[in-house]
């Protein structure tokens, strides 16, 4: 099979590799569409994210959809010909987190495109049956692939315990911010304030459910927010920008007793925070790492087409053009949101 292999930082070659064979409990999937994620770009440029370091050539890509073309021994819930969305993490199933349902915290997880595990910028992958979810005929391959970043937004909204009628601010309108907005809307938020520096991204935010937008280049967030919330602040802030200033602004934006969910990773190990203020206002600060139990609900939420998450796709590439997709993501940040690779 053909695969786009990251050989060194900034160097991807198309290689011919052995087609994988499904073991017992696994299925063989022909990949149809894969999204390019910020984490892929980070590995491509810098060769590592935190404790995860690329030490040998790796296939990137973890936002994947495909069609089942082979079945391993003992697989009962899936069959050849089904179109599927792939949840990219295979967990140990035995640790305390796997047992209590927070399997996103499993330290033994094998996650696509997280070193040393290969991803899906290739023609075929094998996955364990339990992380492969059939999708309805009406769902596009692109939507199925984007269930992965959509899941991050869904998990963030769940961690923030967003209930119908509540008000939300979302810092950063990259793909994850947009997915958070879509999920806030689906959860029934009465006000969704989207914040970014790029007008194009704020335009997109309105398509994803934002009721208000603030361009930090133009307005002062504090004043704008005081105006639209009558000085109360919002119930929930979702920080997806991964910037220390955005986190501090999120903390200032919520009401007394409000919640702040941190989704974006700041590029530094420590960030200073206004702790006396946070204690005085009984803020809840909540971390988010990937997601758990989101795929079945995400498939249901996206099946009726009410929210079209494929609007964020700004470029389509063949497997051979994977390197060009990375280059575009790096050099044209203002005009690119989500690139799709089509190995099929
Ligand atoms: Zn991703
Ligand atoms: Zn585990």
UniProtKB/TrEMBL annotation:
Cross-referenced SMART domains: PKS_ER (SM00829)
Domain of life: Bacteria
Entry-linked CDD domains: sorbitol_DH
Domain (Enoyl reductase (ER)) ranges: 7-337
Names of required cofactors: Zn(2+)
MF GO annotations: oxidoreductase activity, acting on the CH-OH group of donors, NAD or NADP as acceptor; zinc ion binding
PANTHER family in the cross-refs: SORBITOL DEHYDROGENASE
Similarity comment: family membership: Belongs to the zinc-containing alcohol dehydrogenase family.
Name by which UniProt lists this protein: L-iditol 2-dehydrogenase
Higher taxonomy: Bacteria, Bacillati, Bacillota, Bacilli, Bacillales
């Amino acid at each position: 099979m053909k695969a786009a292999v990251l050989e060194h930082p900034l160097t991807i070659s198309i290689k011919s590799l052995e087609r994988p064979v499904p073991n017992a409990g696994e299925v063989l999937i022909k990949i149809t569409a894969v999204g390019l994620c910020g984490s892929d770009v980070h590995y491509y440029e810098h060769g590592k994210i935190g404790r995860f370091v690329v030490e040998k050539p790796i296939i990137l890509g973890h936002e994947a959809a495909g069609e089942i073309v082979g079945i391993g021994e003992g697989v009962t819930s899936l069959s050849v010909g089904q179109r599927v969305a792939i949840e990219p993490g295979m967990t140990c199933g035995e640790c305390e987190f796997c047992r209590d349902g927070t399997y996103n915290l499993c330290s033994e997880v094998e996650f696509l495109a997280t070193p040393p595990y290969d991803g899906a910028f290739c023609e075929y992958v094998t996955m364990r049956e339990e992380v492969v979810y059939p999708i309805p005929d009406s769902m596009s391959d692109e939507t199925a692939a984007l269930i992965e970043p959509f899941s991050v937004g869904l998990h963030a909204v769940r961690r923030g315990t967003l209930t119908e009628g509540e008000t939300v601010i979302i810092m950063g309108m990259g793909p994850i911010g947009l997915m958070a907005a879509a999920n806030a809307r689906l959860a029934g938020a009465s006000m969704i304030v989207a914040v970014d520096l790029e007008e194009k991204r704020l335009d997109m935010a309105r398509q994803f459910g934002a009721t208000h937008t603030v361009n930090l280049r133009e307005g002062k967030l504090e004043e704008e927010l005081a105006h639209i919330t009558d000085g109360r602040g919002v119930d929930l802030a979702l920080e997806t920008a991964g910037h220390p200033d955005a986190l501090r602004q999120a903390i200032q934006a919520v009401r007394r007793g409000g919640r702040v969910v941190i989704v974006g990773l700041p590029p530094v190990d420590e960030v200073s925070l206004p702790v006396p203020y946070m204690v005085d206002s009984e803020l809840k600060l909540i971390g988010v790492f990937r997601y758990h139990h989101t795929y079945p609900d995400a498939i249901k939420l996206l099946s009726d087409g009410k929210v079209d998450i494929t609007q964020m796709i700004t470029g389509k590439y063949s497997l051979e053009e994977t390197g060009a997709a990375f280059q575009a993501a790096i050099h044209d940040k203002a005009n690119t949101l989500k690139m799709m690779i089509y190995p099929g």
